[in-house]
Amino acid sequence: MMRKRIYELLLEIPKSKVTTYKEIAIKLGNKNLCRYVGNTLHKNPNKNKYPCYKVVNSKGKLSNNYAFGGIEKQKEELEREQIEVKNYKVNLDKFLYKFNSNKR
């Protein structure tokens, strides 16, 4: 059930925004679930429906192990949404989406 919720949260991220594994974990109610979130995204059942490329680490870095083509593909997907990527990093001050604090 939690995996389904993670994928649903991806659909809430607005165009031209990213979020972090930690932001998703916090939304789930446990900031320590970051690794679980990452593992779940790596097993994304439908990359066209669930935009896991929009999730970066807490420093804004892209994933070296992006499941759907590697770090270059993640960079390409982000840039397609006009999200600036410099040295495989996103400026979180500019592009971070934080979920509202109300748990669902």
Please count the helical segments.
5
Q: Supply the helix-strand structural class.
A: mainly alpha
Order of helices and strands: HEHHEHEEH
Tell me the strand order in the biggest sheet: 1-2
Largest sheet: 2 strands, parallel
Q: Kindly, what is the distance between the CA atoms of the first and last residues, rounded to a whole number of angstroms?
A: 12 Å
Which descriptors apply to this entry?
two-stranded parallel ribbon; 5 helices; two-stranded antiparallel sheet; 104 residues; mainly alpha
Q: Could you explain how this protein is built, in words?
A:
This protein is mainly alpha-helical. It is 39% helix and 8% strand. The protein is built from five helices and four strands. The protein has helices spanning 2-10, 21-28, 34-42, 70-80, 92-95; strands spanning 19-20, 55-56, 85-86, 89-90. The strands form two sheets. Strands 1-2 form a two-stranded parallel sheet. Strands 3-4 form a two-stranded antiparallel sheet. Strand 3 (85-86) and strand 4 (89-90) form a beta hairpin. Helix 2 (21-28) crosses helix 3 (34-42). The radius of gyration is 12 Å and the shape is globular. The model has no long low-confidence stretch (mean pLDDT 94).
